[in-house]
Amino acid sequence: MLVGLARYAEENVCGVAIEVDSVRHLNHRHTGAEDVLCNCGARGCVEAAAAVPAMLKRLEAAGLADHDTDLRGSYLLAHLLRGRDPHVTQVVREGAEKLGEVVATLCNVLNPRRVVITSALASVSHDVLAGVRSVVYERARALATKDLVIDYSTLGDDVGIAGAYLIGRRYLLAATNIKQLRVAPAA
Hints:
The chain is α+β, with helices and mostly antiparallel strands. The chain is built from eight helices and six strands; from the N terminus they run ββββααααβααβαα. It has helices spanning 46-50, 52-61, 73-82, 86-110, 127-139, 142-145, 159-172, 175-181, and strands at 2-4, 15-19, 30-37, 43-45, 114-118, 149-152. It is globular. It starts with a strand and ends in a 6-residue tail after the last helix. The model is unreliable at 1-24 (pLDDT under 50).
């Protein structure tokens, strides 16, 4: 199954897909950001530190939110990042580093060959990719990163469609479902 660190691109900085059999609740892995309360009730979850709403809240508290636009979520953050404000860039990099901590842990445990990051920010800046890579290469074991490729998805906005297709195909072609799809013999 493809596991996404961030399930909804509109609500999160980015998604990370690593093919594994079973991993759940990666958004709620502790990142050390004790001052940030997550929607799950815990403090320091990667979702609370690196999700787009959390970053936008930090930018709004610093007076950097753009209220003159109809953009929301990751599209608003991309718009703010295009403005090249160093404070916006810093907030995005810090979020990417928190995400990188989780990816580094996954790399140590799962030893993937490829980590694919999806992000609305990919076309605007490489700060997310650079932040994730720097932490992964610093904290993951050398064996786990020897042949590791970390890159943005090449599917762009079609990544959700591709993911839905893969999930549907896996479900339909599962052995238990194939038995149900058999046509009854003619009488």
